[in-house]
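The instructor's notes for this session suggest beginning with a concrete chain rather than abstract definitions. Hand out the sequence below and ask the class to guess, before any prediction is shown, which regions might be ordered.
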Amino acid sequence: MSHRLGTLGPLLGLCILLSAASCRGPRREGLAETDFSNVHLDSNGRKGGQSQSTEALGRLLQLDQVLDLAVNQGLDMALARTRLSISAAEAQMARAAWIPELSFSADTWHNDGSVQATDGIFSPQNKRNAREGVGLSLELDLADALFAPRAANERLAAQRSLTDAARQSTRQRAAILFLNLLEAQFEVEIAFEARSHAQELERVEGARFEGGAGLEVNYQRAVAHTAQVSALVVEADRRRSVAAARLAMHLDLDPGRDWQAQAPLTLEQWAGGDDLMAELDLGGEDSEEGDLSLAERARLQRPELAAAQARVRAARLEARGESRRWLLPTFQASVFEGEFGPELGEGSDSMVHALGVSWNLGLGMAGQAKRARAREAQAVLELAQLRRLIEAQVAEAGAGLEAAVSRHDLAQARLSAADAGARLAEERHAAGAGLLLEALAAQSDLVGASMAVARARVDRLRATWILARALGQNR
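After discussion, reveal the predicted structure:
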C-alpha cells in the first residue's frame, strides 16, 4: 500500500491527454492533445482564452474560492456553528452552579379578615407589612457543582471536534462538486473538438460526392456521424449545467447563473496533488509518521474520534456524579438586608440570614445512576463502532485511490492507441485507401478514449480528497 501510494505524486503533474505518441515529434492538432489546463467555456459552450471580460470573471470559480464559500456560506457549517454556540452556552450555565444569585426585591403583605391565635381562637384582624431590600442566595447541589461543569466542558470539546469534522466534510463536498463541474467542462470541450472533426469529414465527403469521386452513401454516413456527435455536445453541455447548479446550491449561490470552474495551469496549484501524495507516502525515510499505518494515522487525526472520546469522558463524569449524589449534600444559604415595616418606606433596618443543608435519598436516584452508567457504556460502544467504521473508510479510500490511478494509466494507454489509430485512418482515408467507416470508427474511439482520460484524471483527484478526508487531514 505505502509503496503504491508513494509512486502517485509525480503522476499528478501529467497533462490530461498526454499519449505515448508525443515522443515521436510534432503531432497534428486534435482531440488527443487538447490542453484542458485553462479551459473556460462561455454560455454558448465556446472555449475562451486567458483574457476574460469582467462579467465572465464573476462567473468563474477557483477551488480556493469554492472552499471558502462552502465554509462561510454553507448551511452545514452554519448548523455546526450554531450547535457549538449551544454547547458553549450549556457549559457556561453549568459553571454558574458555583456563583450565588443576587436579587433585588420589594413586596407588601396585607391581611383583612380573621387570623388564628396560638390557642386556636379566630379573631378579626387588619394586618399589613412591607419589605424592601437586596437579597443574595446560593443553592449548591454539590454533585452537580463538582461533575456537571467538567462534563459540560467535555461536551463542548466534543462539539468543537464535530465542528472541525463538519468543516472537513464541507470542504471535501465542495471540492468534489468543483471537480465534477471541471470534468463536465472537459467533456464539453472534447465534444466540441469531436464535432469539429466530424464536420470536416462531412465537408470532405461532400466535396468528393459533388466532384463525382465519392459515393452518396458515404456522404450521408458522414452527415449522420456529425448529427450523432452534435447530440453528444448537447448532452455534455446538459451535464455541465447540472454540475454547475449543484455546486451553486452547495455554496448558497444562484443556481440559475452559468457558473464555471477555472482550472489553473497545473493540478498541484489547486488540488495539492504532489503535496498530498508526499504526505501519504508512508514508506519515506524522512516521514515523521513513517511507522504508522493509514488506519493509525486516521485514529490520531479524525475529529469524529476526538469528539467520541470527549463524549465518553463526559458520560463517565456524569455517571460518577449520579453514583455519588446520595452522599453529597445540597447547601442553601441566603441573606437579605433592607427595611421591614407596616408600609414601604416606613420600616426599620432589617437583616435576615438563613443556612441549610439537605441530602436527597429518594428511590429515583438508583434509577438515575443506572441510566448514567448505561449512557457511559453506550458512549464506549459508539466509540468502538466509530473506530471500526473509520478503519473501513480508510481501507476503502486507499483502495479507491489505487484503482483510480490504475484506471488513469489504462485510459492513457487506450488514448495512445486510439490516437494512433485515428491518425492512420485519416491518412488512409485522405489517400483513398481506407473506407469511410474505418475513419468514423477511429474518430469515435478517439472521442471515447479522450473522455475516459478526462474522467480518469478528475476521478483520481476526487480519490485523493476522499482519502484525505478519511485520514482526517485538513486541506
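Then share the key points. The two ends are 22 Å apart (CA to CA). Residues 2-102+144-330+364-471 form a domain with the Outer membrane efflux proteins (OEP) fold (CATH 1.20.1600.10).
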